[in-house]
């Protein structure tokens, strides 16, 4: 059964860092484009970062996170990561991993002092 599970969210102060993980079962992440989305309260879900399959591993980022967030994959662990540095209050949202039609349950990131 295909499943994505996010982890690594939490409460962090502005300027801090978090690393989110997206672990997959039943889906080989290495041959798929993997996306990280986020949704803040009363806002639409937005694409934050993506990484193409193992052949190219091209990364793309929303302008709002460029230079602060890094998406990467560990094919041996069938996991994709989102390293988030220099976090800002406006990064507060539920972060979701997405592959094709599959979505994880989300992990809450709260940036607050």
How would you explain this protein's 3D organization?
The chain is mostly beta strands and 113 residues long. Helix content is 0%, strand content 50%. It has strands at 3-7, 10-12, 18-25, 34-39, 46-51, 59-61, 69-74, 79-84, 93-99, 102-103, 107-111. Strands 2, 4, 5, 6, 9, 10 and 11 form a 7-stranded mixed sheet that branches. Strands 1-3-8-7 form a 4-stranded antiparallel sheet, with no helix packed on it. The model has no long low-confidence stretch (mean pLDDT 95).
Largest sheet: 7 strands, mixed
The total count of strands amounts to: 11
List segments where confidence is low: pLDDT < 50 over at least 5 consecutive residues. none
How far apart lie the N and C ends? 40 Å
> H/E element string?
EEEEEEEEEEE
**Which of globular, elongated, flat, extended, rod-shaped describes the shape?**
globular
Rg, nearest Å: 13 Å
- Percent of residues in β-strands: over 45%
Secondary-structure-derived class = mainly beta
Average pLDDT metric: 95
What portion of residues is helical? under 10%
Features:
113 residues, mainly beta, 7-stranded mixed sheet, 4-stranded antiparallel sheet, globular
Which helices and strands occur, and which strands form pairs?
Blueprint: E1 3-7, E2 10-12, E3 18-25, E4 34-39, E5 46-51, E6 59-61, E7 69-74, E8 79-84, E9 93-99, E10 102-103, E11 107-111
Parallel strand pairs: 2-11
Antiparallel strand pairs: 1-3, 3-8, 4-5, 4-9, 5-6, 7-8, 9-10, 9-11
Quick summary:
By secondary structure, the protein is an all-beta fold. The protein has strands spanning 3-7, 10-12, 18-25, 34-39, 46-51, 59-61, 69-74, 79-84, 93-99, 102-103, 107-111. The chain is globular, with a radius of gyration of 13 Å.
